[in-house]
Amino acid sequence: MWKQHIVGAVIATFIIAAGISFNPFFAAGSDEHHWGFKRAQNGEQAEAGAQLDQLLDKYGAIYKGKADKKIAYLTFDNGYENGFTESILDTLKKENVPATFFLTGHYLDSASDLVKRMVKDGHTIGNHSYGHPNMARLSPDGMRAEWQKFDGKLRELTGIDRTTYARPPEGIFNAKVLEVGNAEGYRHIFWSVAFKDWLKDERRGADYAYNALMEQLHPGAVILMHTVAQDNAEALPMFIAEAKKQGYTFLSLDDLVLEYEDFPVALQSPAPSL
């Protein structure tokens, strides 16, 4: 509970500071950024480059933790259900590992029981927009409508008042998306580990997913996986076990935010509330 209060205070302080420091007449660039980075190798962190690093840092967006701690953060993008999320949730519960699920409005409607289980198991729900549009091509009102419509549906379904972490569909964004998101109380979370895993009918096997994850694993890794892939569901137990064997601890995005703001974080993830 103390951690939730601290994280809430951190986010509130950040939003207030953002409101003071951001020039309301600033014309954010309309160019679209497609999130990408130099992949991690041999335990070295992924790098997005100075330009993207500066842009994200300006708006408090995060894609990795600190390089001196063997901590990893699991995140999943769920646009639609393909039958493997339950297995993923079973693995997370067995291994006592927290995760954040970035959901769309379609998922709230079509997989409501799984959403309720995510919340019951103590995981975080992130805002992946309601209709999965290109956020960079929306007006500020359009952006707000996407996030708020999702939050309204989530509130009806789970009682959660709102989300605080957002992720743009397909990783497409611009400065205006980050700026408007901050003004509405959302912090954007990108990722530093990913691989081609979103094609539901393209099986490559559990070893493919496992190897892709292990090859890119690095201290502070924010890992993106898609729940539509059977490969991911099958590889996840092996990946978590091997990462723990190598000394990694899995923490939540709340812990990542605390670390980003230079608050001390626990080195052991809390047990999910059941």
Round the Cα radius of gyration to an integer and report it.
18 Å
Instruction: Give the uncertain stretches in residue-range form.
Output: 15-29, 267-274
Number of helices: 10
Q: Give the termini distance in whole angstroms.
A: 15 Å
- By helix and strand content, what is the structural category? alpha/beta
Helix content: 40-55%
| Mean pLDDT metric | 88
Order of helices and strands: HEHEHEHHEHEEHEHEHEH
Q: Classify the beta-strand content into a percent band.
A: 5-15%
Domain NodB homology: 70-251
Keywords: Membrane, Transmembrane, Transmembrane helix
Transmembrane segments: 6-29
Protein name: Polysaccharide deacetylase
Name the features.
disordered C terminus, 10 helices, 12% strand, single chain, 274 residues, 5-stranded parallel sheet, alpha/beta
Sum this structure up briefly.
This protein is an alpha/beta fold. The protein has helices at 2-21, 50-58, 85-95, 105-110, 112-120, 140-158, 175-183, 206-216, 230-245, 253-260, and strands spanning 33-34, 71-78, 99-103, 124-127, 165-166, 172-173, 187-188, 221-226, 249-250.
Verbal overview:
This protein is of the alpha/beta class and 274 residues long. It is 43% helix and 12% strand. The chain has 10 helices and 9 strands. Strands 2, 3, 4, 8 and 9 form a 5-stranded parallel β-sheet that branches. It has a two-stranded antiparallel sheet with strand order 1-6. A two-stranded parallel ribbon has the order 5-7. β2 (71-78), α3 and β3 (99-103) form a beta-alpha-beta unit. α3 runs parallel beside α9 (230-245).
